[in-house]
Amino acid sequence: MHSPVVHYFSQGYRYVYGMASPTSKDTHQALTSMALEGSIRRLFLFYTEDLSYAKEACLAAIEHVSFLKQLNPDFELVGVLKYTTNTSSAANFFDSVVVEEAIRLRADSVLGCDSKVCHLSAKNVPALAFARSRACSHMSA
């Protein structure tokens, strides 16, 4: 069985260079995997309101949670944090605001939609700080 993209190329369409999925579907596969996995039950979501792509992707993720509850009734969205570029430019915003909110809500999964999160450094990847904080809290328990 061939994918739809392979089908287009095999039909002789010479100017088909790529096919993108709609932004609204970008988070669905990851979230569905989380819900089916079973041990992930409490999702915290954050996004910038300044980037239309990020905002659209995360708003679609929020809508997708109702479907995920059918797959795993224990799966829930525990919080959403919206912010602007001006807000997120504050020193240690991701570690001090995003991660602290995820911990306060006892989230066991975090989904972020922001171009800044793509930079691979501890100060810009909330998941790293979140994991670090979770590991410390488990070690002290």
Topology (elements, then pairings):
Layout: H1 4-10, H2 28-37, E1 42-48, H3 52-71, E2 76-83, H4 85-88, H5 93-104, E3 109-113, H6 126-140
Parallel strand pairs: 1-2, 1-3
Helix pairs in contact: 2-3, 5-6
Key phrases:
141 residues, alpha/beta, Rossmann fold, three-stranded parallel sheet, 3 strands, 14% strand
Percent of sequence in beta strands:
5-15%
CATH domain fold name: Rossmann fold
Mean pLDDT over the full residue set = 74
Q: Percentage of helical residues?
A: 40-55%
Q: Would you kindly provide a written description of the structure presented here, covering whatever features stand out?
A:
- With 141 residues, the protein is α/β, with parallel strands linked by helices.
- The chain has one domain (22-140): 3-Layer(aba) Sandwich (Rossmann fold).
- 48% of the residues lie in helices and 14% in strands.
- It has a three-stranded parallel sheet, sandwiched between helices.
- Helix 3 (52-71) links the parallel strand 1 (42-48) and strand 2 (76-83).
- Helix 2 packs parallel to helix 3 (52-71) and helix 5 crosses helix 6 (126-140).
